[in-house]
Task: inverse folding
């Protein structure tokens, strides 16, 4: 994303941390069967083989952890004084950039996640920004405090 002439970044929003923590917890739970199997076969293999297998398992799950963390931190919604830009990373080398001019925004639709959105660590949802052509330009899922973001967009506009 390149800033235009006289364009200033007002806010940057990243995805909410709670779903990310749930994904990390799922990753940890998924690693338990591998370590349990390794525990069961530890007497049948030598120390060097055991060390290589445990190193491989830990390395595999560390790669998955860093990949998930990169995708989490790289996705962001940027609000400037002229436009809204959403950078969405699909894979490590594939991303999409969607943008909407502030003057063209007609509707900002917010959908929260459940009845517990009044609790700060559960207050996340989806923001859908539609322009004058009534096509959806930006869809930001797992947004932290979607109502606050909507108010900020209309205050900036």
Result:
């Amino acid at each position: 994303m390149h800033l235009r002439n006289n364009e200033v970044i007002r806010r940057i929003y990243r995805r909410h941390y709670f779903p990310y923590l749930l994904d990390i917890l799922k990753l940890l739970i998924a690693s338990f069967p591998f370590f349990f199997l390794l525990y069961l076969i530890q007497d049948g293999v030598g120390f060097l083989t055991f060390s290589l297998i445990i190193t491989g398992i830990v390395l595999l799950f560390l790669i998955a952890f860093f990949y998930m963390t990169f995708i989490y931190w790289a996705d962001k919604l940027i609000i400037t004084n002229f436009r809204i830009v959403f950078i969405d990373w699909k894979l490590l080398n594939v991303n999409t950039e969607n943008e909407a001019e502030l003057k063209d925004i007609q509707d900002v639709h917010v959908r929260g996640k459940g009845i517990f959105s009044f609790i700060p660590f559960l207050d996340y949802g989806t923001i859908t920004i539609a322009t004058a052509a009534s096509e959806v330009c930006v869809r930001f899922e797992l947004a932290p405090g979607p109502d606050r973001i909507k108010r900020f967009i209309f205050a900036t506009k």
Observations:
- The longest helix spans residues 47-74.
- Strands lie at 9-14, 76-80, 83-89, 95-101, 105-112, 124-131, 136-144.
